[in-house]
Write a structure and sequence with these properties.
Blueprint (H helix, E strand, L loop, with lengths): L2 H6 L3 H18 L5 H17 L4 E7 L2 E4 L2 E2 L7 H12 L3 E7 L7 H13 L6 H11 L5 E5 L12 H30 L8 H16 L2 H4 L11 H18 L4 H12 L10 H4 L7 H8 L1 H11 L4 H13 L20 H16 L11 H10 L7 H11 L7 E4 L4 E6 L1 H4 L5 E7 L5 E8 L14 E5 L9 H4 L3
Antiparallel strand pairs: 1-2, 1-4, 2-3, 4-5, 6-7, 6-10, 7-8, 8-9
The chain binds fe (ii) ion (2 copies).
């Protein structure tokens, strides 16, 4: 196959790698002002721009596979040679990969060639990585980070309680920033500002994704941060966080997790056009009010189109926004005249959305489901309202008794679930006992493991008698879960 034909059959990421590798080869044999080198730099720069819609672009090797932004590239007849060459190229330099930062888009041709040339020369050095790191610093090239071979995500099995508390605090900050950035965007739309950008939102979601990849457990508990009478933006921040937790468990790439997070965060954007008296009406809605409510998913998609963002990013999140009330069997709203199944993002967001709606303690709701019952209700609707596999993934993340569920134990203790059993314990959660003070408030006492068994009888020491929504007893889980 000719080089041109081969080039045409590459995907966008493969094209980027092809341009990188051919530039490194061309620059090795020709001078900087040779026309092939000049054209090579141009192609390489162009492919960086078309691949980088995140603020960074990472290409690396893991288990002899090539990844661009966590997207595994398929190894086939067309790509085999290119991939083998790149893997050898990195191996010879003790590199796992290279991360390009956004500033690379403004790098001059001279800078790019310096980087390519240093990368090439590093192979000859006794310690290629150290030499390359120092040389890039000397040349003041700040738009590249080297991914070392040992750089692997740290799993937290042996991590201390202090680490966990730090991660919880970090999660709380991420969550606050995500919520605040949504509020900012919504306010700008309300103020009818033209050209409302989402750059900041993308950045905070990217940060959250980075931390969520490291430890999704603290993020799965995030909806307990909700306080009473704080609904509008909290709901969207919860839906975004829970959706990203589902996405993480089904191994979506970092890039897709960011898109999913943005999409979930903006899923109810259309509600800003609904008057509050309709949105929070306690009585039955009349026909025109119901129509107004049911149009919000379509309006979310319509408002998204007006935001300042790349067409590519908008295209990825437009349809799932429209789909979030459509239901798995398409019986929801707005009525869709097609039989096309929901997109993956649409299926994920509708699960996170329903769970948060069922468990949110909005003042005007009379009936509050405890988190475990909400999950039970949703499980019963699997195959109709929800994707059966994704519902199982979701229950697996939250555990049978999700964090924030209030339990009455057979010891007559009242206990709040503070940790999901999905990882740390076999089946039963970790809870903190709450005692009622004279002023009616609840105080956090010892933490106990409901998995604990009597050494003689083998029976569980404590049994769960009843579950409640914490709001039914005036308890705000955030005070007990996200505090030490
Ligand atoms: Fe909605
Ligand atoms: Fe919603």
């Amino acid at each position: 196959m000719s080089d041109a034909a081969k080039y045409k059959s590459y995907s966008q990421f493969e094209e980027f790698l092809h341009n990188f590798y051919s530039l490194s080869q061309t620059a090795r044999i020709h001078s900087d002002n040779h026309k092939l080198v000049i054209a090579g730099v141009e192609k390489f720069s162009e492919s960086i721009k078309s691949c980088m819609d995140d603020e960074q672009l990472t290409f690396k090797i893991s288990n002899d596979q090539l990844y661009v932004d966590d997207e595994k590239l398929s190894y086939n007849r067309t790509t085999k040679n290119l991939f083998d060459n790149i893997i050898r190229f990195f191996d010879a330099r003790s590199l796992e990969g290279v991360r390009l930062l956004e500033a690379v888009k403004h790098a001059s041709a001279k800078e790019i060639l310096t980087f390519i040339s240093l990368l090439d020369k590093s192979e000859q050095k006794p310690e290629p990585l150290t030499w390359l790191t120092n040389s890039l610093a000397v040349e003041n090239i700040q738009w590249v980070e080297l991914v070392k071979k040992s750089e692997r995500p740290q799993h937290d099995q042996e991590s201390s309680y202090r680490d966990k508390a730090e991660r919880r605090e970090r999660a709380r900050k991420d969550y606050t920033y995500v919520k605040a950035s949504l509020e900012e965007v919504a306010q700008k739309i309300k103020d009818q500002k033209s050209e409302v950008g989402i750059r900041k939102t993308v950045r905070v979601v990217q940060n959250m994704v980075t931390n969520l990849i490291e430890d999704d457990e603290v993020y799965a508990a995030i909806s307990t941060l909700r306080v009473f009478d704080d609904y509008t933006f909290t709901h969207s921040a919860n839906v975004a966080t829970l959706s990203m937790c589902i996405g993480r468990r089904i191994n979506l790439s970092r890039r897709n997790l960011v898109s999913l997070g943005i999409c979930a965060l903006f899923h109810d954007l259309g509600k800003i056009e609904i008057p509050n008296e309709v949105l929070h009406k306690k009585d039955k809605l009349d026909k025109s009010e119901l129509k107004l409510i049911q149009e919000h998913s379509l309006n979310s998609a319509r408002l998204l189109l007006k935001l300042k963002a790349s067409t590519d990013s908008k295209a990825r999140i437009l349809v799932p926004m429209f789909e979030h009330h459509l239901k798995y069997d398409l019986s929801g709203y707005p009525h869709a005249d097609w039989k096309r199944p929901l997109t993956l993002f649409g299926k994920i967001i509708s699960i996170a959305d329903k769970y948060d709606t069922l468990t949110s303690s909005r003042a005007y709701r009379k009936f509050l489901l405890s988190p475990d019952r909400a999950l039970g209700y949703m499980f019963d609707r699997s195959g109709k309202d929800f994707d059966p596999t994704l519902i199982k993934v979701f229950i697996n993340i939250l555990g049978v008794y999700p964090v924030g569920t209030l339990l009455r134990l057979d010891t007559d203790e009242l206990a709040l679930v503070v940790s999901s059993p999905s990882r740390e314990f076999s089946k039963r959660p970790l809870v903190c006992v709450l005692t009622k003070e004279n002023d009616g408030s609840y105080k956090k006492k010892e933490i106990i493991n409901l998995d604990e068994r009597d050494t003689e009888t083998g029976e569980y020491v404590r049994q769960i008698i009843e579950t409640y929504h914490p709001a039914n007893l005036g308890i705000q889980p955030v005070q007990h879960i996200f505090s030490n």
